[in-house]
Amino acid sequence: MKRIAACSFLYAFGVFAPTVFAAQAAGGQAAGSSGPQNTVKARPAMPSHTATDPALMHPAALKEKAPDVYDVRFKTTKGDFVVEVTRAWAPLAADRFYNLVKHGFFTNASFFRVVTGFVVQFGISADPQVSAAWDTATIKDDPVRGSNKVGFVTFAMGGPNTRTTQVFINLADNSSSLDRMGFAPFGQVTSGMDVVQKLYSGYGDLPEMGGRGPSEGALSKGGKPYVDKNFPMLDSIETATVISPAGEAPSGSAPAHKAASTGGASTP
């Protein structure tokens, strides 16, 4: 598996947080990583029999153009949230996300990195074979037209043109650093940001960043069984579904913009 040096960012199959954020990430981890208490029971394991869409084994074939604006509902072990994607902000990212969602890539995937006051990260498949198939399925960079404010959704990367499947939601206003580093938001959480803020953060950051969370390499190779055995408190995605529009928006009509339920996000 291709490895990226530890000075890059946010794990995109081997992508780490930047050195400029080491102190911030460590601070966020300390604030929200007291660890599971003895009195807290691990959540029941989710069923693992969900069939994998065979199309996910062929990333190069999943090139459908996304609608101009579409919503995705995430049903998670903590509750539901909705992401509104605006293709004009980052077309390549919007198309990649659309195809991943349509073919069930995120089903049973864990929120494997939750750093309080920084980011929530997900996008490593629960199926190791799918992770392997997408390991080198990179897309080129989009220009940064948005801003990494609270609730905005962005692909992780480890340098130019390295985005694959990993995504993060900003838990704080990270725009002053991430925007200039080339991280292009493609959507925002428009409802359920309170759910995102409550995702389990007790393991803190990735072990490479001084936390007690999953190793990206081990998660990619071990999938859901690795998480269930070693990190039973992590929240995960039950389903992610495109809920609107069913196809391209009719000419002359665009879905109305919806403000995030917490009021933390704003239009780029």
Summarize this entry quickly.
The chain is α+β, with helices and mostly antiparallel strands and 268 residues long. It is 20% helix and 17% strand.
Poorly predicted segments: 1-42, 45-49, 246-268
What is the strand tally? 8
Oligomerization state:
single chain
Full CATH superfamily name: Cyclophilin-like
**Approximately how much beta-strand content do the residues carry?**
15-25%
Q: Can you count the helices?
A: 6
Query: What composes the largest sheet?
Result: 8 strands, antiparallel
User: Helical proportion?
Assistant: 10-25%
Write the SSE topology:
Blueprint lengths: L21 H11 L36 E8 L2 E8 L4 H12 L10 E3 L3 E4 L5 H7 L17 E4 L11 E4 L4 H4 L6 E7 L1 H5 L18 H15 L6 E8 L24
Antiparallel strand pairs: 1-2, 1-8, 2-7, 3-4, 4-6, 5-6, 5-7
Structure, explained:
By secondary structure, this protein is of the alpha+beta class. It has a single domain (19-34, 65-244), classed as Cyclophilin. Helices cover 20% and strands 17% of the residues. It contains six helices and eight strands; from the N terminus they run H-E-E-H-E-E-H-E-E-H-E-H-H-E. The chain has helices spanning 22-32, 91-102, 128-134, 175-178, 193-197, 216-230, and strands spanning 69-76, 79-86, 113-115, 119-122, 152-155, 167-170, 185-191, 237-244. The chain has an eight-stranded antiparallel sheet with strand order 3-4-6-5-7-2-1-8. The longest helix is centred in the C-terminal third of the chain and has 15 residues, at 216-230. The chain starts with 21 loop residues before the first helix and ends in a 24-residue tail after the last strand. Residues 1-42, 45-49 and 246-268 have low confidence and may be disordered.
